[in-house]
Amino acid sequence: MSSEKFQTIESLAVPLPIENVDTDQIIPARFLKATTREGFGENLFRDWRFDKNGATKEDFVLNNNTYTGKILVAGKNFGSGSSREHAAWAIHDYGFKVMVSSWFADIFKNNALNNGLLPVQVSEAFLLTLFKAIESNPATLIKVDLEAQLISIAASGASESFEINPYKKECLLNGYDDIDYLLSIKEKIVQFENSRS
Amino acid sequence: MAGKTLFDKIWDKHVVDEIKGGPSVLYIDRHLIHEVTSPQAFSGIESRGIKVFRPESTVATPDHNVPTIDQHLSIKDELSRFQVNKLTENCEKHGITLYGLTHPYHGIVHVIGPELGITQPGLTMVCGDSHTSTHGAFGSVAFGIGTSEVEMVMATQCILQPKPKKMLISVDGELSKGVTAKDVVLYIISKISASGGTGYFIEFAGSAIRSLSMEGRMTVCNMSIESGARGGLIAPDETTFAYIKGREFAPAGVDFDRALEQWKLLKSDSDAIFDKELHFDAADIEPMITYGTNPGMGAKIVEQIPATEEIEPSTRESYEKSLAYMGFKAGSPIAGRKVDYVFVGSCTNGRIEDLREVAQFVKGKSKAEHVTAWLVPGSKQVEEQAHKEGITEILEAAGFKLRQPGCSACLAMNDDKVPEGMLAVATSNRNFEGRQGPGSRTMLASPLTAAAAAITGEVTDPRTLL
């Protein structure tokens, strides 16, 4: 459900150069017992952020004050595994607005788009450029322009365009909701049902 | 004009509308729901002031977080109890059929759908669970969705969905003794990787796939998602029709005959074009097991864990991180590792055929003393059947602990957790870090391989004991 309009984002970024980050790492199953959409950010990457006694694991990037920002940049095949939308909720709730990777799992990508979290798929080469830029200078600003479908590194000017379904782009830019759209064509749906029986 | 794939035929028949440059409006025939991914969707439609549009096309069961002991009592865990009660409340409010914990039809959502005849060829089916792909074994288009999409289906019986590309995976030849459906699918994923199927819907074909029982086909389609694919399907045939006939919600009498005529047409045209085609030889497949933290990291039990040099340089860091979590060394043999836990169950391998296979294997034997062996049937009906066939007694005599139906240690939302640092051989579908409990380590394998590990107490090629 998205209602917030997606604006161009210029922000610092957090690097997570790990491949195959699955939904059980993003939010472990034992934290899926809530019946609302809020508050999942608290347990984002729970077992990478905290040890079994709840103590902070200093070496994990989200616990490292060097990196901050609204953009999370992760290794190939991000979000594989379960269909839990809680993964997208957790990332968004934590404060990220954009997810960058060279490959996203299908269900995760849909879930992100349905929650105002923009998945930006870039080439392997550009992903590497991003990691290098952020890691060598954590103050690197990354700009994500949805309208122009362009991601760029402010300092160097390096950029790459990204794909997004035109319908989903409109939804994000205008804060439209899929369910509102579906409800608006309900008559058509009933006609479809009648034509089958 | 080229022919159509089975997937296209079913998908196209369910398109209500196309958005220009956008996704299709896809009509959904069956919606399965459970306690974990539905509450926010119910709240969503309620905040819009609407009711579930087609409650008669919706079926609910609590499976993910439920305890597998004392199911007749109130659930001890407060959050789980609240979530399960919420499902009951929501189903009552919206007139949805619910198979609750004590109902004879209760079980894992992907086990009860087929066994009740709810799953049928040619249908579109969704559920807020990625393993909805299981139902594709019947020649239906079935896939997992997120909660926002669950809400769409509740509100309109439709979802907005981009059409995936099509992949054909054929496996031809005869599977040798001790090689099962699980080995076939673990082999395929080890070849195409955990992301090789992303963007595709897979049709499985070939003589080795045809030779599988419905249970075996469900195992294969169930794990298609582990390759990243949106789902998998298999064209229905006599095996499919025989399985469906006589089931509770399957068409009966003349209706069955009429349905059968339609079902027989459900196959890809011989000149259909797939976006990608892969062919495998059944003779190359041997008992498989995973050694890493994604389902693509699998190998034959007789092999060694690949040396780091064999891995593509850009992924070596992730590879080593994965092996470090497992406590394994690159290049070391897979067989012979000490196993602490064995888990037989889940929507992948918790059906009656899986239990029969394990029972036949362990009959007259005892589990190794240091192994904790859990067997969790996929549904009440599976449990019931296992009692009737004497399977329960055989397994108990061998030292297995029999529990009540649910997702259980597959994702460890309930108390069925593998303790930190312990190594489990599991018949489930994911070997992710901590999947079976924080710090747990999982090796995915077939029920036969799991049974062999329980008996010997180490990773064992089951063929050595057949």
Structural overview:
The complex is a heterodimer of chains A (197) and B (466). With 197 residues, chain A is of the alpha/beta class. Chain A is built from 8 helices and 8 strands. In chain A, 45% of the residues are buried. Chain B has 466 residues and is an alpha/beta fold. In chain B, 31% of the residues lie in helices and 16% in strands. Chain B is built from 16 helices and 19 strands. In chain B, 59% of the residues are buried.
Q: Strands of the largest sheet of chain B, in order across it?
A: 5-4-3-6-7
Quaternary state of this entry equals heterodimer
Mean pLDDT across every amino acid position of chain B: 97
Distance between the first and last residues' Cα of chain A: 32 Å
Which spans of chain B have pLDDT < 50 for at least 5 consecutive residues?
A: none
> Mean pLDDT of chain A, nearest integer?
95
β-strand amount of chain B: 15-25%
What would the principal axes of the Cα set say about the shape of chain B? globular
Number of helices, where a helix is a run of at least 4 consecutive DSSP H or I residues of chain A: 8
Classify the helix fraction of chain B into a percent range: 25-40%
- Could you give a short account of the major beta sheet of chain A? 4 strands, antiparallel
In terms of DSSP E residues, the strand content of chain A is 15-25%
Topology, pairings included?
The complex is a heterodimer of chains A (197) and B (466).
Chain A: E1 9-11, E2 13-16, H1 23-26, H2 46-49, E3 71-74, H3 86-94, E4 98-101, H4 106-113, E5 118-121, H5 124-136, E6 142-145, E7 150-153, E8 159-161, H6 166-174, H7 178-184, H8 186-196
Chain B: H1 6-13, E1 15-18, E2 24-27, E3 30-33, H2 39-47, E4 58-60, H3 78-94, E5 97-98, H4 109-115, E6 124-127, E7 141-144, H5 147-156, E8 158-161, E9 165-172, H6 181-192, E10 200-205, H7 207-210, H8 214-222, E11 231-233, H9 238-244, H10 254-263, E12 276-281, E13 288-290, E14 298-300, H11 316-326, E15 341-344, H12 346-349, H13 352-362, E16 372-375, H14 380-388, H15 391-397, E17 401-402, E18 423-426, E19 441-444, H16 447-456
Parallel strand pairs in B: 3-4, 3-6, 4-5, 6-7, 9-10, 9-12, 10-11, 15-16, 15-18, 16-17, 18-19
Antiparallel strand pairs in B: 1-2, 2-8, 13-14
